[in-house]
Design a protein that fits this description.
CATH superfamily of the largest domain: NAD(P)-binding Rossmann-like Domain
Subcellular location: Peroxisome
Largest sheet: 8 strands, mixed
Structural class: alpha/beta
Subunit structure: Monomer.
CATH topology of the largest domain: Rossmann fold
Number of helices: 24
Bound molecules: ligand LFKQWZQV
Distance between the termini: 39 Å
Catalytic activity: (3E,5Z)-octadienoyl-CoA = (2E,5Z)-octadienoyl-CoA; (3Z)-hexenoyl-CoA = (2E)-hexenoyl-CoA; a (3S)-3-hydroxyacyl-CoA + NAD(+) = a 3-oxoacyl-CoA + NADH + H(+); a (3E)-enoyl-CoA = a 4-saturated (2E)-enoyl-CoA
CATH architecture of the largest domain: 3-Layer(aba) Sandwich
GO molecular function: (3S)-3-hydroxyacyl-CoA dehydrogenase (NAD+) activity; delta(3)-delta(2)-enoyl-CoA isomerase activity; enoyl-CoA hydratase activity; NAD+ binding
Pathway: Lipid metabolism; fatty acid beta-oxidation
Radius of gyration: 29 Å
Strand content: 5-15%
Shape: globular
């Protein structure tokens, strides 16, 4: 946990040895306290060096220990002892020094940030020699340093506070950081440290800290995919991907090309028409150049090839199809790819919800077919849903997961069903929002409630950004609206369920969101982003309600949050039951990285557990009773089961889920 050695007969070298990141666990703190005592008491030791094993100084407190009560010696007295000691202590920093690890470095009298380990001992000895020869330690103690305090501190911190409140709505930690900076600038060291400890204790005991810790581990858990067959992340070898092809240079295709090229993969981009190819090419080049400039590297344009011919794809390792969301078109592309590509080429589809297995079925290699659902814009958004069809091989899944990681994505393996995880859950969430419109709410009221909850964007602003026509087309194709609707259907019901036609009415007016300058809101111009409430939408809602004799009522923010978010989580429970997601963590990661769910709330499933499953169940029962024609509000059997089992912690739900239905 901490190794103690004497170097050059006078330097005590203390090495943190807690892989993988040398976190300050109770055992490490204990070993460090002992080592420091030994070093300070040994007359041969004239200086101490602290470093971390395997190229990482220290990843901070051991977050795994936060779940339980504090064990072992606390960190602060150890830091105080180092800072106040009579022997110079040097932090030899390599890799990371985070959180408590950074504090450890700060209390050392000298810090060396170094990259080449072979220079390690030499640099330290030099630094220590310098300190002994010339400088009294008092000038090196952090507690003796004066903090510069700008005369306009209050005004400065006020501006920063406003900015933080806007950017990190409802998040406590950044505001506490500002208060800690104020304490550092205005108080003596001992008082400032006390104030910082108080702030830390407040944060530590908040639900937000628990949620953020959960998110940290959920993200890492998601990478550890597992299939019912026993294949999993650590026993399935991914293929090496050197070359790839993208079919379709629309918004998604362009983003995927950029994501691949910037990690050094050769890409052939295919379009069906010369004009589209040329436009796509110019856009991709521009995106790559801007990206390279931002990162201070040269753009990898030499890795790109643009073509109109699928024949050029015969030798690539992997193809990602990103054509229009149309099953017949995608099937034609996959049939063609089967003929053109060598038999070992992996065939991936960037569909946002279509049946991956149906596509696999038209190829000569269903085991090499997998869904790679990117989120728009694909070169920016971190989430990748890897959709495992029933015939996708473990090697295929491992390759898609590993390629996602290589592109810097957070990849989550999910099963194959309409909408997969993310978009399947979105439907009940959006349905609730539109039902609330019918009942008396406005788009801006609903958005405000969701944004106050912490979402970067409420559901209507998000829809305007994404484009309303996509959902409208899907609803028309599935006979929910348009000429194919059975005239015997009552106007607000489809398939025996409640249906809200307001989104269709909005689209019928050519209001497709930001791109047309009108949607649920109005914008200054097509493509504008500044959303303003539109009186025309208000009129439309009033006329609609009067046509159907709906008496509008006052709807509270609490009802908005409960109906939207509990319906969302309820679908998450069904997804777990259906085996479409392996764990609640996977669902939460999808919502955190793909749908702007506030991180300090942990994701929809963690949020449900924090509210209390019993309460979620009770509210869903209440709302379902009030709206019996909305099946999404009927509590899922898994939720009922978990409540009956005493509402276990989210990390143990998996034990209560029958795996026999797994689609993974
Ligand atoms: C008393 C309170 C005092 C101070 C407060 C604190 O110190 S709070 C903790 C502050 N530290 C952090 O927030 C660091 C969190 N870790 C990271 O940001 C990254 O893990 C890191 C260190 C940059 C390394 O990133 P990398 O991508 O290289 O690896 P990865 O994230 O996959 O992590 C590897 C495994 O290490 C585990 N791990 C990382 N940090 C911690 C930690 N602080 N405590 C416990 N475990 C940690 C991580 O879970 C991974 O585990 P694995 O089992 O392999 O999934």
């Amino acid at each position: 946990m901490a190794r103690y050695e004497l170097v050059k007969r006078s330097v005590a070298l203390i090495t943190l040895t807690n892989p993988p990141v040398n976190a300050l666990s109770s055992a490490v703190r204990h070993a460090m306290a002992k080592s420091m005592e030994q070093a300070l008491n040994d007359p041969k030791v004239t200086a101490v060096v602290i470093c971390g094993e395997n190229g990482r100084f220290c990843g901070g407190a051991d977050i795994r220990e936060f779940a339980g009560p504090l064990r072992g010696p606390p960190l602060v007295p150890l830091l105080d002892a180092i800072e106040a000691g009579e022997k110079p202590v040097v932090a030899a920093i390599e890799g990371v020094a985070l959180g408590g690890g950074f504090e450890l470095a700060l209390v050392c009298h000298y810090c060396i940030a170094h990259f080449k380990v072979n220079h390690f001992v030499l640099k330290i000895i030099k630094a220590v020699g310098m300190s002994r020869a010339a400088k009294p330690l008092s000038s090196r103690r952090v507690s003796m340093l004066t903090t510069p305090c700008p005369p306009d501190l209050d005004a400065l911190l006020e501006v920063v506070t406003m900015e933080v409140k806007k950017k990190a709505r409802g998040v406590m930690a950044p505001l506490a950081c500002i208060q800690a900076v104020r304490a550092a600038a205005t108080m003596p060291y001992s008082k400032g440290i006390k104030r910082e400890s108080e702030l830390m204790a407040t944060l530590f005991n908040s639900g937000q800290a628990r949620a953020l810790q959960y998110c940290f581990f959920a993200q890492r858990t998601a990478g550890k995919w597992t299939l019912p067959s026993g294949a999993q992340w650590n026993n399935s070898k991914p293929r090496e991907i050197r070359s790839a092809a993208i079919i379709g240079l629309g918004t998604m295709g362009r983003g995927i090309v950029v994501s691949l090229a910037r990690v050094g993969i050769s890409v052939i981009a295919v379009e069906s028409e010369k004009k589209l190819l040329e436009t796509g090419k110019q856009m991709v080049i521009g995106m790559l150049e801007r990206d390279a400039k931002r990162r201070g590297v040269s753009a990898s344009l030499n890795l790109l090839k643009f073509t109109l011919s699928l024949q050029d794809l015969k030798d690539v390792d992997l193809v990602i199809e990103a054509v229009f969301e149309d099953m017949a078109l995608k099937k034609r592309v996959f049939q063609e790819l089967s003929k053109v590509c060598r038999p070992a080429t992996l065939l991936c589809t960037n569909t946002s919800g279509l049946d991956v297995d149906a596509l696999a079925g038209v190829t000569d290699r269903p085991h090499l077919v997998v869904g790679m659902h990117f989120f728009s814009p694909a070169h920016v958004m971190k989430l990748l849903e890897v959709v495992c069809g029933p015939r996708s091989s473990s090697e295929t899944i491992a390759t898609a997961m590993s390629l996602g990681k290589r592109m810097g994505k957070v990849s989550v393996a999910v099963g194959n069903c309409p909408g997969f995880v993310g978009n399947r859950m979105l439907k009940p969430y959006m349905d609730q929002a539109t039902f609330l419109l019918e009942e008396g709410a406005t788009p801006e009221q609903i958005d405000k409630a969701l944004e106050d909850f912490g979402f970067a964007m409420g559901v209507f602003r998000m829809s305007d950004l994404a484009g309303l026509d996509v959902g409208w087309r899907i609803r028309k194709e599935s006979g929910l609206t348009g000429p194919d609707v059975d005239p015997k259907n009552p106007p607000r019901r489809r398939h025996g369920r409640r249906y809200c036609p307001i989104p269709d009415m909005v689209c019928e007016q050519g209001r497709f969101g930001q791109k047309t300058g009108r949607g649920w809101y109005m914008y200054d111009k097509p493509g504008g982003t500044n959303a303003k409430p539109d009186p025309l939408i208000q009129n439309l809602l009033e006329m609609y309600r009067s046509r159907y004799a709906i008496q509008p009522r006052n709807i509270s923010d609490q009802e908005i949050i409960e109906r939207c978010l509990f319906a969302l989580a309820n679908e998450g429970f069904r997804i777990l039951e259906d085996g479409i997601a392996a764990r609640p963590e996977d669902i939460d990661v999808i919502y955190l990285f793909g749908y702007g769910f506030p991180r300090h709330r942990g994701g929809p499933m963690f949020y449900a557990s924090m509210v209390g499953l019993e309460r979620v169940l009770e509210r869903l029962e209440h709302y379902h009773q009030a709206h019996p024609d909305v099946p999404h509000l009927e509590p899922s059997p898994l939720l009922k089961k978990l409540v009956a089992c005493g509402s276990p912690s989210v990390q143990t739900w998996r034990e209560h889920i029958k795996t026999m239905h797994s689609h993974l």
